[in-house]
Amino acid sequence: MPLYVYEAKDPEKGCEKCRNGFEIPQSLSEDKLTHCPYCRADVFRVICAPGLTHSRTDLHYRAKRAGFHTLKRVEKGEYEKIY
Ligand SMILES: [Zn+2]
What we know:
- This protein is α+β, with helices and mostly antiparallel strands.
- The protein contains two helices and five strands, in the order βαββαββ.
- Strand 4 and strand 5 form a beta hairpin.
- The mean pLDDT is 78.
- The site of zinc ion (ZN) has 8 residues, from helix 1.
- Zinc ion binds next to helix 1.
């Protein structure tokens, strides 16, 4: 099953899981999550470029530390992170 990454739309309202993003296995036929399964905060799906998944955490962490990441709107409720 593919792993999907979700992150809180508003980190202020998220729990410790979704504030920094969490991974969840979902089949392709499953609907994407709109709420965090832990705290019910609004979440969006982060699309990871194939092959970069293993280094995502590090990249993610560094981008956040640097304070710049841009979200490109892909479709309703779905965003792609541009570093
Ligand atoms: Zn949460």
